[in-house]
Amino acid sequence: MDPDQQTSPLPRPSAEYFQWDYRLRLIGLGFGFYVATFLLSHLLSLALSCTYNSLPAKEKVFWNIAASRAAFGIQSTVAGLRALTEDSELTRDRVRGQEDWSWFNVLTATGFFVFENVALHTSNVVFWSFDLPLATHHFFALSGYAGAVVWDSLGHFLPMVTLLLEMSTPFTCISWMLLKAGWARTLFWRANQWVMIHMFHCRMVLTYYMWWVTLTNWGEISTHVALPQRLLFFSGLGLLTVIINPIWTHRKTMQLLNPVDWNFGNKPAPLNGAAEDRSKILAKPHAS
């Protein structure tokens, strides 16, 4: 290959994405959108859900964070599948390729991870709790995407594929909300649980694929990706592959066999609300 072709510049995204004020606005947009999702979930649940109104404050916060994660999971799944299936600069150059739509997702995802870290650690302080695997996951997520914003020559293929790891979050949200509503013995809950477990296995396969991409492009990654970003990425990917994914997959599988809320002290799943209401009605004495 001609040496001039090897060093020829890649097509660049719109100039706005290389202006810091524009980046900060999109990060703020992502943060604001998911704060709004959190608040909307609270207001709708307060008006429509008896289950939500019966929860302690800590579990109400978790309910709304779960809804926000589910919304972000949909955005992330679309972005990740687009990166894997569309012929774009990302697939042509997996180390340096960028597109306008990938920049949009990197910046709004950074906003989401800022929101999630603020929500998680505020909740931890208020309710005196701490989930180490989740906190570790959120630290690496925010640090990684903030790094992609700072070192703007980094390609977006791996960041978009990483977003696809959020594919499980809509099903996790449905599983937990239905469990709290007393639907854990229903066919619908079990079907959702099966799909969710399958998504967690897909996450594991996806991490293996990411290792393969990095190893087959190791020379370019060493040349074009800054050392701090490499350390963050490989530390996070290693923890996800060896510890976090296996733990979460095991927990979700055991939850199918024994429906408990392992987020809050392994509480057993409540009975279906409708069944409880019927038993209360039958227990009431008839008016004379």
From TrEMBL:
PROSITE patterns: TLC. The chain crosses the membrane at residues 26-49, 101-120, 157-179, 191-211, 231-248. GO terms for molecular function: ceramide binding. It is a multi-pass membrane protein. Residues 61-261 form the TLC domain. Keywords: Membrane, Transmembrane, Transmembrane helix. It comes from Seriola lalandi dorsalis. It comes from the Eukaryota. This is CLN8 transmembrane ER and ERGIC protein. GO terms for biological process: action potential initiation; aggressive behavior; cognition; lipid homeostasis; locomotory exploration behavior; nervous system development; phospholipid metabolic process; regulation of autophagy. One of its GO terms (cellular component) is membrane. It holds the Pfam family TRAM_LAG1_CLN8. It is found in: Membrane. Its main location: membrane. The keyword Cytoplasm does not apply.
